[in-house]
Amino acid sequence: MATPEAPAIRTTGLTKTFGGRRVVDGIDLDVPTGSVYGFLGPNGSGKTTTIRMLLGLARPTAGEITMLGSAVPAQVTRVLPRVGALVEGPAFHPQLSGRANLARLDAADATSDPRTAPERIATALERVGLQHARDKRFRVYSLGMKQRLGIAAGLLVPRDLLVLDEPTNGLDPQGTREVRHLIDSLAADGITVLVSSHLLSEIEQVCTHLGVMREGRLVAQGPIDQLRSQGRTLLRLRTGEPAEAITVLRRMGADETSHQGDTVLAGGMDQAPEAVVAALVAAGVGVREFTVRAPSLEDVFIGLTGEGFDVSG
Ligand SMILES: Nc1ncnc2c1ncn2[C@@H]1O[C@H](COP(=O)(O)OP(=O)(O)OP(=O)(O)O)[C@@H](O)[C@H]1O
């Protein structure tokens, strides 16, 4: 049994190679118990392969995994009953109701008790907010409802950990919100959630922790506030004297400056904005516009991954 202090998931040097290519390259994941851990990275960065190894669906080339206190894959049969997973989505029958679909999946699970099935199915449907639609056919469900039914399938027995691979992928904004609310409420119940996404904006609001993948490597990991504070404040100003402005800003500590036309950008300064404006004016630089942009997670990730994360949705 994992103690409350033990991480829900920990990997050491986890590696997977396909044809000599390191698709997952020595990653040390640390998913605290009780966290909502956003596993973020562009398509192809190795998230799904990592998740498949965690769930015992793929064998690591090297490295170790401990999940809920048990070694994976060696003790995967012990740990899997405590883990709900949504990977690639279960195959639902379009003509059957949500409830009938869950009954089919539950019946196919040799470890679940058929006597308690109706109650467990009702609880899972309730949990994801689909009780009212339980008798509707799957094919008339909205995208968000379909995805929530997929999560319900992972909740047919009580779980300590939920692993969701891109649960918001392809959803419209409404569906994305539904899934986010569901993750929030599952976390409030004490379930640890690992949720992958290639879109920061889709999961940022629900996560307590983030891990960022780039080309098979885990390039950042930690509590979301800690990662956010790694960002740099950016000053932006408009002036008729950009060259002079840059000289002043550099003297005041800016280590990154650029200008285009009358717009000057500067990073790496920690002076109060009013002190910067005063120094500019004292140096004869006319300031037409001045803004300070607080660091965003988006900026941090662009720096880490070398590419922008989609901010839609
Ligand atoms: N069975 C396999 N054989 C060979 N290459 C594979 C296999 N599975 C995955 N890959 C490759 O490994 C890389 C990482 O894939 P993976 O699916 O883990 O990334 P991902 O971050 O989950 O991206 P996506 O969001 O697109 O699924 C990709 O280049 C993919 O083509």
UniProtKB/TrEMBL annotation:
Keyword Transport: yes
The organism's place on the tree of life at top rank: Bacteria
InterPro entries assigned to the protein according to its UniProt record, in alphabetical order: AAA+_ATPase, ABC_transporter-like_ATP-bd, ABC_transporter-like_CS, DrrA1/2-like_C, P-loop_NTPase
All residue ranges annotated as the ABC transporter domain in the record: 9-240
Keyword ATP-binding: yes
PROSITE patterns assigned: ABC_TRANSPORTER_1, ABC_TRANSPORTER_2
Keywords: ATP-binding, Nucleotide-binding, Transport
GO molecular function, one term: ATP hydrolysis activity
SUPFAM superfamilies linked to this entry: P-loop containing nucleoside triphosphate hydrolases
SMART domains per UniProt: AAA
Family membership noted in the UniProt record: Belongs to the ABC transporter superfamily.
Protein name from the UniProt record: ABC-2 type transport system ATP-binding protein
